Amino acid sequence: MIETERLIFREYRDEDFNDLFEIIGDKETMAHYDRPYDEKGCHRWIEWSKENYEKYGFGLWVLMLKETGEFIGDCGITMQNIDGEILPEIGWHINKKHWRKGYGKEAATAVRDWGFKNTEFKTLYSYMTSTNVASYRLAEAIGMKKIKEFNTESGIDYVYAVTKE
């Protein structure tokens, strides 16, 4: 599993429900999604993550602070439909109590490096709504460049990418 200076990554477990729901059930945190997740959606998130580990050998991993063992979010690679193409996407979700401390960048950088070392992918992507400034700034901070914009039902999404080189 991945470890950074301040973070430990691990696979999701059923007992992560409450910590995850605090993040993905929060209106402010999920402002750039169609809506926050309900309890059923949160359970499905954990099951989907487990299915991804089984199918691909990767997925969204829980982020825990090394110092305290606290669950602060998730980050990983998932296969996403990005404007009609199934592509490997680096995604991240950080508990708002821990925003602006550099954890997202630290986690996404480690996942980027892990992805290029442990998969055959030559390019990794991230996509987000055009209004999600924090996410596209983080994508830029890990070396991604905006390569595309596309229309969705809820607005415009940006696609960022970084290549192995």
CATH topology: Aminopeptidase
Highest-level CATH class: Alpha Beta
The count of helical stretches stands at 4
Largest sheet: 4 strands, antiparallel
Low-pLDDT segments: none
Number of strands: 7
Order of helices and strands: EHHEEEHEHEE
Instruction: Report the average pLDDT across residues.
Output: 97
Helix content, binned percent: 25-40%
Q: In the CATH classification, which architecture applies? A: 3-Layer(aba) Sandwich
Coarse structural class: alpha+beta
- What is the CATH superfamily label? Gcn5-related N-acetyltransferase (GNAT)
State which percent range the strand residues make up. Answer: 25-35%
Give the termini separation: 23 Å
What features would you describe in this structure?
With 165 residues, the protein is of the alpha+beta class. The protein has a single domain (7-163), classed as Gcn5-related N-acetyltransferase (GNAT) (Aminopeptidase, 3-Layer(aba) Sandwich). It has helices at residues 17-24, 39-56, 103-118, 133-141, and strands at 7-10, 60-65, 71-82, 85-94, 123-129, 145-152, 155-163. The strands form two sheets. It has a four-stranded antiparallel β-sheet, sandwiched between helices. A hairpin with a 2-residue loop joins strand 3 and strand 4 (85-94). The longest helix is centred in the first third of the chain and has 18 residues, at 39-56. It is globular and about 40 Å long.
